[in-house]
């Protein structure tokens, strides 16, 4: 009866159109493909009132997600808190600061549950029974868990040497976990060959256009929770460079549909680790071509993609929106993880440390105005990346079960309390 809402795919370089299929690049120029929608069709059922009345998951934005039917995988994903972070704001010297906290996303504690919900629901529509991914860690967890819950066979490929929490978080779900002796880019290339050879659905390879759309829900939620407006600044971590672009696309789609107060003037800022900074180097050097990083070396392993698929578009977007990008070393990453935990009670993984440390830097540089609204995207959970903290955090003090020993401790920690 109703017309089609999801029209198909289109090449981001030449605009060539493709039908809805498991394909991620243009056969003419290898440009990335993107899902296109009929926005008039979307607008028939999608508006502020309708969305507000729906369930608390990312699927409340269903009309702007790439499915033809209802979601079948990851039905509880999304609707994570947007936390007003006043204590942290005070330390940073800014007036309106928010943490978008995807460290508590369901079910695997990172923003990757959003992209996997979208990609695997699409995989089911396409009829795939075996799915997979090339992962820096969080994607492995999410594909493994969501595939298990959906009864799909999962092949998860990761670079050897990932954090234990991320490896276990994939194994526990019964996925076939394969560690490759090489870096992420080599894993990714192998996955392209496997997807082609076996005809499987790899969420971030042949299903990538559908996968990437899931990231828009971070932007929809931010705008809705700000009372249907886009913030002045967003700071997003960048691995493949997809998330940052999709947050902005989300704001622009809501604007197009007349759902926002005021125009979108958000400056998009991108965060990377110095040990793997292909996109931030592109922005800082003022060049347009992304130079791959051959041997990523950083504790922010989830962001360690040397040859980012969407690096070109991410750096272009950062420039066009008046944003900026920077990168930070391992010490600054850990310091920022501690700062977020001590001020706001949020334990993020190393990627979150990257994002907050870069935010601090951009505020100090005057690239983020202190009196404007700022959203920092925290994308993963600290429980998964404990290794760098083990070496850097103090051990608990051990005492006998004795009040005297405890009193002596309080004397040392907080003398003012001991005097009572
Ligand atoms: C994958 C990932 C990102 C970045 O995703 P891209 O869309 O590839 O840039 C950010 N944070 C965490 C924790 C991730 O796992
Ligand atoms: Zn093309």
Quick recap:
The chain has 420 residues and is α/β, with parallel strands linked by helices.
Q: Could you tell me the strand content as a percent range?
A: 15-25%
Q: Enumerate how many helices there are, as a single number.
A: 17
Secondary-structure content class:
alpha/beta
DSSP strand tally: 13
Low-confidence stretches: none
Q: Can you tell me the CATH class of the largest domain? A: Alpha Beta
Measured as a percent range, the helix fraction is: 25-40%
Structure description:
It is a single chain. The protein is an alpha/beta fold and 420 residues long. The protein has 2 domains: 3-75 and 112-211, 3-Layer(aba) Sandwich (Rossmann fold), CATH 3.40.50.1100; 82-108 and 215-390, Rossmann fold (3-Layer(aba) Sandwich). It has 17 helices and 13 strands. The strands form 3 sheets. Strands 4-5-13-10-11-12 form a 6-stranded mixed beta sheet, with helices on both faces. It has a 4-stranded parallel beta sheet with strand order 8-7-6-9, with helices on both faces. The longest helix is centred in the first third of the chain and has 15 residues, at 112-126. 52% of the residues are buried. The structure holds pyridoxal-5'-phosphate and zinc ion. Pyridoxal-5'-phosphate binds at residues 110, 112, 138, 237-243, 302-303, 349, 351, 379-380.
């Amino acid at each position: 009866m109703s017309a089609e809402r999801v029209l198909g795919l289109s090449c981001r370089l030449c605009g060539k159109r493709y039908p809805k299929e498991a394909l991620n690049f243009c056969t003419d120029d290898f440009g990335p493909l993107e899902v296109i929608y009929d926005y008039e069709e979307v607008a028939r059922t999608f508006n502020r009132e309708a969305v507000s009345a729906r369930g608390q998951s990312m699927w409340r934005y269903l009309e702007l997600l790439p499915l033809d039917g209802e979601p079948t995988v990851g039905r509880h994903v999304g609707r994570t808190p947007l936390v007003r972070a006043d204590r942290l704001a005070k330390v940073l010297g800014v007036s309106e600061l928010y943490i978008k906290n995807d460290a508590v996303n369901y079910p695997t504690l990172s923003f990757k549950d959003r992209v996997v919900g979208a990609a695997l629901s699409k995989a089911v529509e396409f009829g795939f029974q075996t799915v997979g991914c090339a992962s820096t860690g969080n994607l492995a967890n999410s594909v493994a868990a969501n595939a298990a819950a959906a009864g799909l066979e999962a092949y998860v490929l990761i670079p050897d040497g990932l954090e234990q929490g991320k490896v276990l978080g994939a194994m526990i779900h019964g996925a076939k976990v394969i560690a490759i002796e090489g870096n992420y880019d080599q894993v990714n290339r192998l996955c392209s060959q496997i997807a082609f050879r076996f005809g499987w659905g790899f969420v971030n390879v042949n299903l990538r256009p559908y996968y990437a759309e899931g990231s828009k829900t971070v932007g929809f939620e931010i705008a809705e929770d700000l009372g249907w407006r886009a913030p002045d600044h967003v700071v997003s971590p960048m691995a493949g460079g997809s998330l940052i672009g999709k947050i902005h696309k989300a704001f622009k789609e809501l604007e197009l549909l007349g759902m926002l107060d005021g125009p979108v003037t958000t400056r998009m800022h991108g965060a990377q680790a110095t040990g793997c900074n292909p996109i931030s180097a592109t922005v800082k050097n003022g060049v347009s071509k992304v130079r791959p990083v051959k041997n990523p070396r950083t504790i922010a392993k989830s962001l360690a993609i040397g040859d980012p698929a969407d690096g070109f578009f991410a750096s272009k977007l950062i420039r066009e929106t008046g944003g900026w990008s920077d990168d930070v070393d391992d010490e600054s990453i850990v310091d920022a993880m501690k700062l977020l935990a001590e001020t706001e009670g949020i334990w993020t993984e190393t990627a979150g440390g990257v994002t907050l440390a870069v935010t601090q830097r951009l505020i100090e540089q005057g690239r983020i105005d202190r009196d404007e609204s700022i959203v920092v995207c925290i994308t993963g959970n600290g429980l998964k990346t404990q290794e760098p903290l083990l070496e850097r955090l103090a051990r608990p003090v051990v005492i006998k079960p004795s009040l005297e020993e405890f009193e002596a401790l309080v004397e040392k920690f907080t003398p003012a309390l001991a005097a009572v």
